[in-house]
Amino acid sequence: MKSINDLVKEAHQNAVSKGWWDEERSFGEIIALIHSEASEALEDYRSGSKPNEEWYQHKIDGATYTQHTPAHKPCGIPSELADIVIRVFDACGRYGIDLERAIAEKMTYNATRPQRHGGKVI
After folding, report:
1. Which of 84, 89, 78 has the alpha carbon at shortest distance from 14?
2. What's the pLDDT score for residue 70?
3. Which of 8, 53, 108, 118 lies most in the core, judged by the most C-beta atoms within 10 Å?
4. How far apart are CA 15 and CA 56, in angstroms?
5. CA angle 108, 99, 82 (to 5 degrees)
6. Do the beta carbons of residue 77 and residue 44 sit within 8 Å?
7. DSSP class of residue 15?
8. Which structural domain, as residue segments, surrounds residue 49?
């Protein structure tokens, strides 16, 4: 299994090679793109998709299938959640963020927090 930082590097290199960094992006734009992927997951849910439901859409005819081949785009909430992570990885690669360390540090801190800290309702 690759480390989180290896995946960060790979996601960012792929985005660079596909031209997504030919022009500089603002930090706000990067966050908006991450948010847009979360919104797509919510829209799939609002359309009746189950959180673990996946399907594959053919790139040419748009029909949906159960198989995954290079001619089929993964769809559904799992795919949108993956897109969120990939965009976060790309951003971390761009800004030189050690995401693996940041996650470990935050998880350690979160373990010290009280039950249902903050008390906020959705």
Report:
1. 89
2. 83
3. 8
4. 22
5. 105
6. yes
7. H
8. 4-110
The answer to whether the beta carbons of residues 30 and 88 sit under 8 Å apart is no
Please indicate, yes or no, if residue 69 is contained in any of the structural domains: yes
What pLDDT is attached to residue 99? 98
What ranges make up the beta strands (E) of 25-102? Answer: 55-58, 64-65, 72-75
Query: Does residue 37 belong to any structural domain of this protein?
Result: yes
Give the global pTM. Answer: 0.89
- With vertex at residue 87, the alpha carbon angle to CA 106 and CA 30, rounded to the nearest 5 degrees, is 95
| 55 domain residue, yes or no | yes
The tokens describing 122, both together, are 């959705």
Q: Are 4 and 103 in contact (CB under 8 A)?
A: yes
* Regions of the chain short of the pLDDT cut 70: 122
Question: What secondary structure letter does DSSP report for 114?
Answer: P
Inside any domain, residue 23:
yes
Torsion angles phi and psi, residue 64, rounded to 5: -100, 150
- pLDDT recorded at residue 53: 96
Report phi then psi at 28, rounded to 5: -60, -40
